[in-house]
Specification:
The chain is of the alpha/beta class. It folds into two domains: about 120 residues, Response regulator (Rossmann fold); about 110 residues, Arc Repressor Mutant, subunit A. It contains eight helices and 13 strands. The strands form three sheets. The protein has a five-stranded parallel beta sheet, sandwiched between helices. A hairpin with a 4-residue loop joins strand 7 and strand 8. The longest helix has 19 residues. The protein is elongated and about 55 Å long.
């Protein structure tokens, strides 16, 4: 039974979603602010966080940023603002999906199932990658089985699920121009619906973690009107 954590300061919404998800065989915990959210996460692990942006004490963007500093638990953000900029900000902070209020509960359920399915597929990835468990490039080591990125001094660099999948797509197709559509297919599967800007956001986040100078990248280079190219050679094993 998937365990969800709902974070919203509206008691009516919490009650509505709690009853809905429990009817659809999900365990549910709730929190009305950031302190309660982190307390709930310390108490027991959850499979996914549904996080409202418009919280009174600390907004969902700040909470997502703090959460991503130490956790890769999937996050779906909810907001009453339909501005596309908010969607981009949420993705930049590491959210896995984004839904605007008001929403159909069935759509939220479908998105929850989709994110959980992708998470489960990633967990099963070692069987797909047994012949190439470690990819090395520049001064980095990407462990495909453990889903870890480590620097030359063996420091672990925390990546969200989307960041890891995109970096793996680059490392498995080095030194060739990849369009945004190809990257979506390689990283998330051809059936996944995404938009170009989401790839740009993930690339930007990867650059800040990989590049010495993210504004002048040498590892992940932009190809004008083409997409991106992963410049370093990659070795396996």
């Amino acid at each position: 039974m998937p365990h969800l954590l709902l974070v919203d300061d509206d008691e009516d919404i919490l009650s509505l979603l709690t009853n809905f998800f429990r009817k659809h065989s999900h365990a549910v915990s709730v929190a009305q602010n950031g302190a309660a959210m982190f307390a709930a996460l310390e108490k027991q692990p959850v499979d996914l966080v549904i996080l409202d942006v418009m919280l009174q004490r600390e907004d969902g963007f700040d909470l997502c940023r703090r959460l991503r500093a130490h956790s890769v638990v999937p996050v779906i953000m909810l907001t009453a603002v339909s501005d596309p900029t908010d969607r981009v900000v949420g993705l930049e902070l590491g959210a896995d999906d984004y839904l605007t209020k008001p929403f159909d509960q069935r759509e939220l359920l479908a998105r929850v199932k989709a994110v959980l399915r992708r998470t489960a597929e990633k967990a099963a990835a070692p069987t797909r990658s047994e012949t190439r468990p470690v990819l090395r490039f520049a001064d980095w080591r990407l462990d495909v089985v453990r889903r870890e990125l480590r620097s030359v001094d063996n420091t672990l660099v925390l990546l969200s699920g989307g960041e890891f999948d995109l970096l793996l797509a680059f490392a498995e197709h080095p030194q060739r121009v990849l369009t945004r559509d190809q990257l979506i297919d390689f990283a998330r599967g051809a059936s996944h619906v995404a938009y170009d800007r989401s790839i740009d956001v993930q690339v930007s986040r990867l650059r800040y973690k990989l590049e010495e100078d993210p504004k002048n990248p040498i590892l992940i280079r932009t190809v004008r009107n083409g997409g991106y190219i992963f410049a370093p050679p990659v070795s396996r094993g």
